[in-house]
């Protein structure tokens, strides 16, 4: 057996998956795979910088230099890392709270009037795939519109509406209720075009008054305060990797 690399159970332990003893049991039970092949032998050595390790199908993140964050973007803030006109932007929050910035960049954008979930990472391949339309990453929004909405609105949006840059449609629609002359609806779509939710709602005659993104893939905004950052959990990171087939 080659003595190069690091023992697999040690890699799992260092990644925070389990103690070495528990990791050995996981390997014995066939729960661990390396580069797509299930490993059951003890003492297998790997190169964490090269080999892809999964436990129960979820990828194990072994590069400790990688950063994965969720931000609740406040109202009026730009989804950019800098602004030459001095306007408030998310880059300022990162600069203040992430040591040395670590090359963290936003995954996609929200317009200044939209609040809610933005992912940030220095994982370039994950960023590329999350933003690429071929992976159809779902995003969920809650939109507040003026007045009441007709019963058939969800079907109309699922069937698709014509916009200036081509047709667009949603994947899921949910009516949340009406209060004080306004209606709240929840929409899920994998479209990534600029201001797509606002433009779709304009097209069907129900302009958005307020808009918040609450979910990207399996990552949810939860009860994060506006302007707050949190590190993604191991399961959340693994779900993003799985979604874009990394």
UniProtKB/TrEMBL annotation:
Protein name (record): Pseudouridine synthase
What catalytic reaction does the record list? a uridine in RNA = a pseudouridine in RNA
Supply the enzyme class, top level.
isomerase
Q: What's the superkingdom here?
A: Bacteria
Q: Which UniProt keywords apply?
A: Isomerase, RNA-binding
Q: Which gene encodes it?
A: rluB
Question: Member of which family?
Answer: Belongs to the pseudouridine synthase RsuA family.
> Where is the RNA-binding S4 domain positioned along the sequence?
6-65
Species in which this protein is naturally found: Mycobacteroides franklinii
EC number(s) from the headed UniProt entry: 5.4.99.-
Under the cellular component aspect of Gene Ontology, which terms does the record hold? Answer: cytosol
Q: Which Gene Ontology terms cover its molecular function?
A: RNA binding; rRNA pseudouridine synthase activity
A Gene Ontology annotation in the biological process aspect, one of them, is: enzyme-directed rRNA pseudouridine synthesis
Xref: InterPro entries: PsdUridine_synth_cat_dom_sf, PsdUridine_synth_RsuA/RluA, PsdUridine_synth_RsuA/RluB/E/F, PsdUridine_synth_RsuA/RluB_CS, RsuA_PseudoU_synthase, S4_RNA-bd, S4_RNA-bd_sf
PANTHER family in the record: PSEUDOURIDINE SYNTHASE FAMILY PROTEIN-RELATED, RNA-BINDING S4 DOMAIN-CONTAINING PROTEIN
Pfam families membership: PseudoU_synth_2, S4
